[in-house]
Amino acid sequence: MSHTALIRSHRKPRRSASTIAMRAGVAGGVLSTLAVAGSAGAANAAEPVTQTIELPTLTVDLAAQVAQSADATQQTAANYELQAERDAAAAKAAKQAKADLAEAKQKAEAKKKAAEAARKAAAERASRDAERTTLTASASVSTSTSTSTSTATGSAAAVIAFVKAQIGDAYVSGGTGPNSWDCSGLVQAAFKQVGISLPRVSQDQSVAGTQVSLSNLQPGDILYWGSAGSAYHVAVYVGDGMFVGAQNPSSGVVEKPLSYDPPTGAVRVL
Question: Which residues contact 252 (CB under 8 A, 6 or more apart)?
Answer without folding.
Answer: 168, 169, 170, 171, 246
